[in-house]
């Protein structure tokens, strides 16, 4: 499963990239609004940090398909070929997806709450469909089970993968990872939680203590023979 960062904060992105195996960055209008800066300024900065080959996902705002298509052209012109144009999975969005996929654009169908939205987006040429796992849970439905059903439905599609989004805890991600979901986009604090574990910290501390008992304080394999 690919792992992406769902954030637009440059310092967060740099920190998470420095530690973890990351495939790209996703944003949405609400995430960009948190920066209080011009969207293109922020997105270009993110592109510079992650490089030309990483995935950058950014969303169109227009309501009509024709306008979404124009936005998509401009976004990819400015942000580079590995930019996935996020398009809301509504009827006008599906119309735009069909057009843009024929033109060879990379598309992430977003705002997905139901398996049938995922099905329609896949048939309209989306490369990714992005179900909102935690938001589905908040409706009293089951985000994990809905996403698994989408995966089963998409098994017949050649091109479309799931990019699961809206996570609040590590277990949600683990369940989808084990099910073979293609990608997950996760906020920095939840990515940290994938590996945060007091038992692991204690085990590593014990190893250091035992080694220092053997070789002396501050010694490592670099200088324990000195
Ligand atoms: O882009 C979709 C995703 O970022 C939504 O996450 O945490 O706002 O539910 P959240």
Please tell me about this protein's structure.
With 226 residues, this protein is an alpha/beta fold. It folds into two domains: 2-193, TIM Barrel; 196-226. The chain has eleven helices and eight strands. The chain has helices at 10-19, 29-35, 39-50, 65-79, 91-102, 115-123, 133-138, 143-154, 170-178, 188-193, 198-215; strands at residues 2-6, 24-26, 55-59, 83-88, 106-112, 128-131, 161-164, 183-186. An eight-stranded parallel beta barrel has the order 1-2-3-4-5-6-7-8, surrounded by six helices. Helix 1 (10-19) links the parallel strand 1 (2-6) and strand 2. Helix 1 runs parallel beside helix 3, helix 4 crosses helix 5 and helix 6 packs parallel to helix 8. The longest helix is centred in the C-terminal third of the chain and has 18 residues, at 198-215. It is globular. The chain starts with a strand and ends in an 11-residue tail after the last helix. 37% of the residues are buried. The mean pLDDT is 97. The protein binds SN-glycerol-3-phosphate (G3P).
């Amino acid at each position: 499963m690919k792992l992406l960062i769902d954030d637009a904060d440059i310092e967060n992105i740099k920190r998470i990239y420095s530690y973890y195996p990351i495939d790209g960055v996703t944003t949405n209008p609400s995430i960009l609004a948190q920066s209080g800066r011009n969207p293109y300024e922020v997105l270009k900065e993110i592109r510079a940090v992650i490089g030309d080959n990483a995935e950058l996902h950014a969303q169109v705002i227009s309501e009509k398909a024709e306008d979404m298509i124009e936005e998509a052209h401009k976004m990819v012109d400015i942000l580079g070929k590995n930019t996935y144009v996020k398009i809301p999975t509504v009827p006008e969005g599906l119309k735009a997806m069909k057009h843009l996929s024929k033109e060879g654009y990379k598309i992430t169908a977003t705002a997905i709450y139901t398996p049938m939205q995922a099905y329609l987006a896949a048939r309209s040429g989306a490369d990714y469909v992005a179900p909102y796992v935690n938001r589905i849970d908040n409706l009293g439905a089951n985000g994990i089970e809905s996403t698994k059903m989408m995966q089963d439905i998409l098994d017949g599609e050649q091109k479309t993968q799931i990019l699961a989004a809206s996570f609040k805890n590590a277990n949600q991600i683990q369940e989808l990872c084990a099910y073979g979901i293609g990608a997950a986009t996760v906020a920095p604090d939840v990515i940290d939680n994938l590996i945060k574990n007091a038992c692991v910290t204690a085990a590593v501390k014990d190893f250091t203590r035992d080694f220092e008992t053997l070789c002396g304080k501050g010694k490592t394999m670099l200088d324990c023979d000195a």
